[in-house]
Design brief:
442 residues, alpha+beta, Triger factor/SurA peptide-binding fold, Chitinase A, domain 3, 3 domains, 4-stranded antiparallel beta sheet, 11 strands, globular, disordered N terminus
């Protein structure tokens, strides 16, 4: 992933998973815990110490543990961390040579964002990090470096990357031509109108007409599972006719050909097989070489209280917690509470925010929303707008429009080109720096 080192740094800070005090006291081998510090590398005139490497190794181990991933060999991890630190230093030095700076207000905003993601205020953030040995000054230095690195890459790398319409179209053509390879998986739902072997031509025509009626109603947007129960002669009525997600090689070639050009949610023409007439709906289509062409949308409503002189944040949380208790116990209606109490424009609609696609809401709101089951009410949560209570009404799969599909392909190509550009640029930056490797980190 691009910017892997300093993205890790931001994630560590955002998740409060960078306990420096622990890093100072814990180590993979006890004899090293009291080892004297020493310089392991010099970048231009700035040293990198064994202590610097050990702190970052500890952070990496904690993050790997959170992700339930096995760590590499300690010597390999230490060398990778050292390489990351060298990359960071040469980039920070270049940014400062170019006169780039980060305003205090931007650092303030970064602190507030981290606090919000952890559902605490900035003072509590400082207190928790102080318990782990990280001073406010050091925290702000790290945040300033992170923002400076991001700005440098936006200027030196990302601003130079262009993806043309022709490249998007070529990629789509290539992937569509290779869409049905062994890596592609599809899930189809079917309505099967069985044709007996002894059926007369008139009976065949009548059965085909039945399948056509089902097709017309499916394309008009009627619930496919209900149409399965009404029309299908297959044995998969309880699953809405779904055959299951599997590789294309495990589907009849006739089905694959009929749905090859369809997007998720589309319905095929009537297909004839030895068993009868089929109407096929594409439920899922997964090609690892293509960005997803369907998204999960959420329909939510919320109650927003904005803390201020007349309402503290604790009072807002307590009030919303009481609202949740009333709703869960059936003593109050969520929409009625939202109309009476919510302090945003959705109040008149009972707090209804409509259908949303991923990325429409701020991360602290969306992360909580994504963990809810339909009908469930969240605990009170803090965002940059205030304190919310969320209720998830329902979820659905939605296909991307052609414009959204092109945008997804463009973003994929831009990410690929940016990664390539970044690697080339970083090699050049390192080649122009004086880097001296001394003792291997312990």
């Amino acid at each position: 992933m691009l910017h892997r080192f300093f993205s890790l740094g931001l994630l560590a800070l955002a998740g409060l998973v960078a306990p420096l005090a622990m890093a100072q006291s814990a180590s993979p081998a006890a004899p090293h815990a009291v080892a004297a510090d020493f310089i392991v590398a010099v970048v231009n005139s700035e040293p990198i110490t064994n202590h610097d490497v050990r702190l970052q190794v500890q952070r990496a181990l904690q993050q790997l543990a959170q992700q339930r991933r096995n760590p590499p060999e300690m010597s390999q991890l230490a060398q990778q961390v050292l390489d990351d630190l060298i990359n960071q230093k040469v980039q920070l030095q270049l940014a400062r040579d170019l006169g780039m700076k980060v305003e205090d207000s931007v650092v303030d905003q970064a602190e507030q964002s981290i606090a919000l993601q952890n559902q605490i205020d900035v003072a509590e953030l400082h207190r928790r990090l102080a318990q782990d040995g990280l001073t406010v000054t050091r925290l702000r230095e790290q945040l300033r470096d992170q923002v400076l690195l991001q700005r440098l890459l936006e200027r030196e790398v990302e601003s130079r990357v262009r993806v043309s319409d022709a490249e998007v179209e070529e990629y789509q053509r290539d992937q569509q031509a290779a869409a049905l390879n062994s890596d592609t998986e599809i899930n189809l739902a079917q309505i099967l109108v069985v044709v007996p072997e002894t059926a007369s031509p008139e009976q065949v025509n009548a059965l085909k007409a039945r399948a056509q009626r089902a097709l017309v109603r499916a394309r008009q947007g009627e619930d496919f599972a209900a149409l399965v129960r009404e029309f299908s002669d297959a044995s998969d009525l309880t699953t809405g006719g779904q055959i299951g997600l599997r590789s294309v090689s495990r589907y009849p070639e006739l089905f694959v050909t009929a749905t090859q050009a369809l997007a998720v949610g589309d319905v095929s023409d009537v297909v004839r097989s030895p068993a009868g007439f089929h109407v096929l709906k594409v439920v899922e289509k997964i090609n690892p070489k293509m960005p997803t062409m369907a998204v999960t949308e959420s329909h939510v409503r919320h109650i927003l209280l904005v803390p201020g002189p007349a309402l503290s944040e604790d009072d807002a949380r307590n009030k919303l917690a009481d609202f949740k208790k009333q709703v869960v116990n059936g003593q109050a209606d969520f929409a009625a509470l939202a109309r009476s109490h919510s302090q945003d424009g959705s109040a008149s609609a009972g707090g209804d925010l409509g259908w949303s696609s991923p990325g429409m809401f701020v991360p602290e709101f969306e992360s909580v929303m994504n963990r809810l089951a339909p009908g469930e009410v969240s605990d009170p949560l803090r965002s940059r707008f205030g304190v919310h209570l969320i209720q998830l009404l329902e979820r659905r799969k939605a296909s991307l429009s052609p414009e959204q599909q092109r945008a997804a392909v463009r973003a994929l190509l831009r990410e690929q080109k940016t990664e390539q550009q970044y690697r080339t640029w970083l090699q050049d930056v390192r080649a122009r720096a004086y880097i001296e490797l001394r003792e291997a980190p312990l």
